[in-house]
Design a protein that fits this description.
There is one protein chain. The protein is built from 42 helices and 54 strands. It is of the alpha+beta class. The protein has a nine-stranded antiparallel sheet. It has an eight-stranded antiparallel barrel with strand order 8-11-12-13-14-15-16-17. Strands 31, 32, 33, 34, 35, 44, 45 and 46 form an eight-stranded parallel sheet that branches. It is globular, with a radius of gyration of 42 Å.
Length: 1493
Amino acid sequence: MRVELTGVSTETLDAVKKSAGVDIKSSVWESYKRAVSKAVSLELHYHALKRQSIWVAVYHSPVAFLELSLDPKDPEWRLYAKPDPSEPMNSPVRRMLDRPVARLRISENLYQGEWEFALPHSASFHIGIKGIRDPDVEGEGLVPGWEPRLGLQRPELKNKKVWSKLEVTVPEKNKADLDTDIAGTYRWLPGCAAANASLHVQEGRDESLPPVFFFLDPSKWGENDEDSFVFSSSFRRYDYGESRPIFASIDTRYRQSDTEETESIACHVQCRWVAEPAVKIQTASSADATFGAPPSSLKFKVGVDDCQSAQAILTCKVRLPAGADDMIWPKNTWSEVDQIHERTTFQEIAFLTERLREVPNQGDWLETSVDSRELACTTCSPIPPQLHWVLDPKAKGGKGGKRSALALEDPSQAGIFELALKNRPSPFVTQLRRDDEGFGHVRIGINIASLTHRVTARLPSENRHNPIQTAYRITTDYMPPAKLTRPKFVLKSNRRDPAHKGPPGFRIPLRPEQLRSLTWMVAQERLDVPEFEEEEIVEAIIEPLGWRAEAKATRKVRVRGGVLADEVGYGKTAITLGLISCSLDKEWKIPKSSVTRGLIPTQATLIIVPAHLVKQWESEVSKFTKKNRMTVVAVYTAMQLKKRTIEEFLDADIVIVPSNLFSSNTYLPTLAAFGAVGALPGSFGRYFRERLDKTIEGVRAQAKRLQDDGAEPVWKAIVEGDKIDTSLHEAPVIAPSKRLRGRAFRQMAEARALAEEDKAAPATSRSRVKPSEASVTHRPGEGQRMLDVFIDVSPSDLPHKYTRFDPPSRVEEIEIEDSDDAKPSLRKRSSRRSLVESDEEEEDTKKASVGRKQRKTEEEDYEMEEASSDESFSADESEESVQTISDDESDSSSKAKAKAKPKPKAKPKAPSKPTKKEAAQSSKKRKSTAVSDDEEGKKPAKKTKAPAKEKPSVASQDPWKLQSKAVKKEWKEMQCPILEMFYWNRVVVDEYTYLKDEAHALITKLESKHRWILSGTPPIHDFASLKTIAVFLGIHLGVDDEDENPTTRGSERTAVEAFHSFREIRSVDWYAHRYEVGQRFLDQYVRQNIAEIDEIIFHEHIELIQLPAAERALERELDHTLRAQDMMIKRGKKTHSDRDQRIMKSLREAKSAEEALIKCVAYYDNVQSGEDNAIKACDYVVKVRKAELEACQKDIYKTLQKLEKQRKAVGKTEQETHYQEWIRVTKSSGVGDHEATRIVREIYEAARSGTAWSVGGSGSKKDDETDEASDASSEEPRGKKGKSDSAKADAIWEHRQTAHALRQLVRELIGRVRSYRYFEAVRDIQKEHVEFTMDCPRCDRKAVPRDEISLLSSCGHMGCSDCVKACTINEECVRAGTSECQAPAQALNIVPAISLGTDDEIKDARRHFGKKLEVVVDLIKNRIPKDERVILFIQYDDLMKKVLEALRANKIACLLLSGTAMQQSEKLSHFQSDEAKEKVLVLALEDESASGA
């Protein structure tokens, strides 16, 4: 990979010059000869391959570089000479060498052709450039230039035109000076990337030749007016160090114009190409270079200690060229290449590595044999730090407004873990060295052992006994694909499977296709079912080198079951019952204890179904099977579960439970109590899953204890577990350095100064928390400008509760006592119950006491009291234990504690009765106040609330009847059996797709011999969704990845985990392989079939809804808002604007912009107006917009009055104030909208003159002289001359802040003016009884009819459609030509007037829910036969409420599936019966209620 040029000498160059017959200045020629001779004196080494539109191979030497351009039309070599580093940046030599000094146009092979030298001989002549008319282009070839396209408003630029076609002529005598023919017609390409939209391409050029482009090429240095148009074969952007091939450049004064005459422009050619046949290019000799590589397949040891060293796979020795970089090639010392310098280093040694890419068996997986016990390496896979769980002070998650849990790493372990990750052995090791003889040594090693240790740590080990198999693969020509093409997963069918014989005991025979599915299901439950190979892959890539190493770990697991994904109507229920029936006659062998791990084995099949389908499944058993064939236990609610016994489950063949049982407020506390390891969290998340794992382990231990020792030990464990406190504590307060500026800095500095002064005063009652030192300790001087300063804010400066990290190991309530002659101290106090201070909290307490949310919350507050103790207060000793609490309670409590200040007081001998004022203040401070028993007795009865009745815990109620004689005698009589305590024969989940949160977490924890999912729509749209199926089956498909599912654990990650997820960057091929694994999983465990039954006759009708004008106006407003945001929901700040409130309400209730638009057209809803139809609402909107506009005008008037007073107080200033600048600009240029400008000027005149102002009126006006005199503020007001510099600086600052507020109000006014104008124009257009016409402000066309008018939603201005479209091309308003409006406008802002429709006031004046719902109601009431029934599928919850309201308002009997599982099942059965009077069944489309109905 080394080349050299031969036959080049100074004599050769002189001969070339002589043959060309050109005259070159001697100094220039000598510089040129030195540079070229030096460039060819050293061989050039391969450097890099640039993969771009035209691939270029680059060769480097210390004095030159050579490019091989692989242009299919004109491949060539180009030699560039590097200027001497001492040359000035803008020297003529550098300019000359910026171009290639020689080239070889390749003929037959890479080394054949004739070399040409670019002699530094410039030629100048004049060419002609003329615009050509083009009838196919609007304006006959004259198009807007780049200036108006950018919206420049200067008169000479805003209407500038240029020619779209140019004709270039070259004198015949000068064509020989050009390297190619540049004469011809050039067509403008406005959409291509070129400076000032100047790109032109030559037309009619021979296709075998490279194209010629004409465009403005900005120079790398110099002023803008030095940039010139050039003729070149390439118009792409060039990186630093690259140069553009230029045929010719023209005078820098030329710019595109609309002149019709031919312009004579000076043209410059910088060099003359002259051929020299004697020059050749050849491969450089490599006789002194040696390399070593493994002769056969590489063998690696992957033991636990083998990761400490890498195995060399390539060693090289080569003589280095003179001037080799000492930083890259250290002398006699091996230097390891780090990631920072990796790219630069490998480019320098690319001439070695590119020749040695061949590694034996590359691209093939090669196995490594090792004992699995030797793969547990903590060096390559460090142990993550232990997590501590606290209440998140910021996040608000969970149900009922509960605060979510926050995971914090143990700081000492996190530091060790972070250091271990950084010090892990690198997969690739590259070392360089230079010896005394000038030879460079390179060795590249690979650490397969380290990669293997990493990958094996990712495979799960729980319940897996097969050995791990490992392998590796090395690829030395890896080129990552541009992007990942995610293939769609494909599901197999059972069409080719044989039909199973009919299930025994069946009344109704199954169809042939159902029997084929039954064959597959029976085969999936065989003992010898094929194993699935779990796998993980870890990779390492040297991107500059193109090398990729992978390590793979696999383990086989045997899972019996799968997913029956047959489509709706196929009969999945019947097939499943057939599977159960086939296994009933088989002898049930109780599994070994090692399999059940203490669980109670049962031959029953647990079927988990949506709540409304429990009864349907129960009836399907009776329908398909013979009497007494199967024993079925159906559980509809958690209360019914309490009446069941273990023995009933052991004797049953089928147990049917609703899926919502696993998330009920009754079952979860019962599960937690039986597990005897503490309560489960009140909100779902990562902490819930962690606690659930411990609970399941506790349930397994309890089940084993129950079978071995009976009920008594189980009950003792439950009693002890009920005492365990699992409540979370507040997060520790971390006080980082905080950046303060301006007023905040000044206030903090003053506070610090006052604190220093207080040190000399007598000690007062305050805690001894020492504040940290500020980075600036002195007080700023008076009148000085405040600079940005970093101040280390101590915990004492911030409202907080904690300053320590470690969570408390035990709960203690602590008081802080103060006295005049004693320091604050800590002492223990007895635990006291909280009292409910308001009816509202009492209600909240009742709600929180239900089920798993009944776990009480107790806060231990820090109270300041007096004591005689000498103990000092230490923030590090403070501890608090808080269970999951509501946000309101937490926020109010924390704010009260932050604001509370301890006051010294005499300690009374007995608690005194609090005054009304104190009681009120205490109630405001916090909702729940802890008081002692004595204090409680002293309070007046009317002020004291009765203590909230604490509901007995689940353990104290003993729902299992463990204390009963029957259970003590026979443990199988235990009631309320926990489903997780059984080892089921089979677990079947119907409609698995709808499982969420707690239900999904608990169901995946169930243990069984066989596991099945029934779902016609399994979640297989991406790999992350597919993993949810694999989790239930107990198969590991791969580690979680943030790129595949960004929402997965996103908010639950710790800081360390989030950081490392960004550190590990995986290749596109890694993700592609995951899809291959996913498809392999589907092929083995999922089948989907189509029912082979007679076609069900159906008719599809699509109702096209034409929205009334009023509803359309509201929809268009939302539509244009979302389009302006690129269909992205951008929830802004709170606002009082009617328009913003209505739009933000729509966006808050929607997950996407499309959803917001669907809801907007689905029904009419205007809560703000209270109107009962859209027409009245639109009129109301106009009124509201007008009122908002008037209110904004009043605010501006008040602000201007304030500014006038401040202006007088400030007096004369050296520079123009912000307010004076605003006045000047407003008077001269306005505010960007003619109507808003008029309003602002009128308000200013009134405020300046001091006259009263009202909306619609104006104040008195003064002449210009008086006005200017007032604006100048030339004299200070009388009596203010003695003002200090500090006071004046404060006054200037306040004046500036008020001026800033004025600017914001003016911007708001402009928006309100345009919003009011737009909606008023829409309503004027929509009024049917008005013949609407208008005059176009741009083309002066009179009486333009409605169907030819367009409206701009950006500002509310109208014009004829042609003019509006033409203006949006320049992104300006139709009134921009008259300087009335500067609002930018785009094509998406155009609203054709005809699309707004007209009001039908007679029809639409009544109350309605929107046109779409009216059509639905009419369809049900009048068009669908009365004896037919209707099922309505509704997408969204809020839309369902509107639909139900509309149906009931129109007296249409409807049924909504809601309530308990029993109630839902009964409603569904009732609707299916002939006795049902309800005509409509309403189902939630995205809910499980829509399944199986």
